[in-house]
Amino acid sequence: MKNTVLRVNEVSKSFILQAEQPGGFLTGPLFRKNTTIQKREKFTALENISFELNGGDILGIIGENGSGKTTLLNIISGIIKPTSGNVECRGRVHSILELGTGFHPDLSGRQNIFLNASLLGIERKKIKEKLEEIIDFSEIGKFLDVPVKFYSTGMYLRLAFSVSLILDADILLMDEIITVGDASFRQKSFRRLLEKMRSGISVVMVSHNLNEVAELCTRCIRLSKGKIIDSDDAFSVTRRYYQEAVRNDLLESNRTESLQVTGEKIMSYTGTKPLSHEKSFLPPFLQWRSEDEAPGNDKIRLLGIGIKASGKNTGEPVCSTDAVEINTQFKVMRELIGLKIYLLLNDQMGNTVFISGAEISGENEKTCKPGQYETTALLRKGQLNPGMFSAGLLFMEQPQAVCAKFPKVIYGTVSRTEKEQDSDDDDFSKTGLFNIPIQWTTIRT
Questions:
Q1: What residues contact residue 128 under an 8 Å CB cut-off, 6+ apart?
Q2: List of residues 6+ apart from 150 with CB closer than 8 A
Q3: Cα–Cα–Cα angle for 389, 394, 397, nearest 5°?
Q4: Where are the alpha helices (DSSP H) in 101-257?
Q5: 96-110 CB burial, b ≥16 within 10 A, e <16
Q6: Would you say 162 and 155 are in contact if contact means Cβ atoms under 8 Å apart?
Q7: Dihedral pair phi/psi, residue 212, rounded to 5°
Q8: What is the DSSP letter of 317?
Q9: Could you read off the pLDDT of 12-37 as tens digits, one per residue?
Q10: pLDDT of amino acid 328
Q11: How many CA atoms lie within 13 A of 187 on its CB side?
């Protein structure tokens, strides 16, 4: 029998949007009208949302801005009531939604710890027991007894987050809270949240960071315009969401007007219809129909680029244990001196995290002759971790001049193996986009 701790039953939420037209106390004289006209419009934020959360589950909620994620968390936490449907909770529910709610600007950091914790339902005795832990974690130090109105935004949020972490809950609700402070504090906060999650509590978290959701969550639902449009294991849902974003990005790009996509199917790409109706489809090879339509300039034209697992067919899933080939086809339009090609790999946020380059000119040759070329960059087995990435290209000639640049020209996903999906072991080498082997030597001194 399932240990269900949270059940959301056909929850809907509507709001009345009321806009005052010209004619009010202030706007009337300005627009020379004496009557007030009010427009009332019904807005449905959530529609027939249903799901269950079992003990120990970590549920991720993703979706575009305005899809209803925060509204859903507010209903589960009891902050607002649903228009229809109901929420059943078993156990203590605590939410980390609005950090710093209840902080008083004229009170010191120490005083606000007690005030904020009391508002969160924490007993004063426990606050005293955890006070030093809160102070150490927040890194406020000598500013503890200074009024918080003099704190920077980062200090304010760190203190609020540190108070929230001492909550004892059976169900924890979180809304985009791993964005607090600098990189070091975020990592520390992330580790602490992992500890809480692995202690057996159930978690519902909203985040725009897909890698974070795929790594932390056991399940995921995707909202769009107030409805659940996808529900599955976290990795599958985030991958499909990312791939749809890729398709939309390709559709909006000028380069797609003359693009042919090769993979699970071949189709002419006009930029006016979707790449595929299959949610799981991600074009593994992009190829332009003709040299004239290919992107580039009078020096370089990009004819095609593809990503595939070594030894597999184009379009087959790429796993973290596969060697990965990134194949590029291009044309050199005129003689270039010292031509080099650089591969840029970016994480899902678009940050370039790896660059590798190669000479295009032949051995002992300084110039690159006009003509068509094909290069293949090979990433060894295990170098790409599970997750989502994009690849870009940069062509340079001597003396360090950029010939052509194609940022984020193709996208790819790396899937977990079945063994990785079933394993509960921590493997920090699987964190981030790359796993670069380094030779270690240790001696006892």
A1: none
A2: 143
A3: 165
A4: 109-119, 124-138, 153-164, 183-197, 210-216, 234-252
A5: bbebbeebeeebebb
A6: no
A7: -65, -45
A8: P
A9: 999 988 765 555 555 555 555 555 55
A10: 92
A11: 5
pLDDT at 373: 93
Read off the tokens for 49.
């949302």
Give the pLDDT confidence score for residue 86 in this predicted structure.
92
Long-range contacts of residues 97-106, Cβ cutoff 8 Å, at least 24 apart: 97/70, 97/73, 97/173, 97/174, 97/175, 99/157, 99/160, 99/161, 99/164, 99/177, 99/180, 100/156, 100/157, 100/159, 100/160, 103/148, 103/156, 103/160, 104/148, 105/147, 105/148, 105/149, 106/147, 106/149
CB of 404 within 8 A of CB of 299?
yes
d(CA 413, CA 243): 9
Cβ atoms of 361 and 403 within 8 Å: the answer is no
All structural domains of the chain with their residue ranges = 1-92+195-252, 257-423
Phi–psi pair at 130, nearest 5 degrees: -100, 5
Q: Does the predicted model carry a pTM greater than 0.70? A: no
Domains 1-92+195-252 and 257-423 share a fold: no
Number of helical H runs and strand E runs in the chain = 9, 21
For residues 227 and 69, is the Cβ–Cβ distance under 8 A? Answer: no
Domain 1-92+195-252 has CATH 3.40.50.300: yes
Question: 3-state class of 160 per DSSP?
Answer: helix
Is CATH 3.40.50.450 the classification given to domain 257-423?
no
pLDDT digits (tens, 9 = 90+) for 156-194: 878 888 887 777 778 888 887 666 666 677 777 777 777
- 137-142: which pairs have CB atoms within 8 A and are 24 or more residues apart? 137/162, 137/165, 137/188, 137/192, 138/109, 138/162, 139/185, 140/109
Q: Rounded to whole angstroms, how far apart are CA atoms 418 and 433? A: 19
Q: What is the pLDDT of residue 374?
A: 92
pLDDT in tens, 383-436: 888 877 888 899 998 877 888 888 877 877 787 776 665 555 555 556 677 777
Segment holding 102, helix H or strand E: none
Pairwise CA distance, residues 101 & 295, whole Å: 51
**What's the token pair of residue 135?**
């102070």
The segment with the largest mean pLDDT, out of 118-127, 139-148, 258-267, 354-363, is: 139-148
> Residue 166 is encoded by which pair of tokens?
């001492």
Distance from the first to the final alpha carbon of the chain = 56
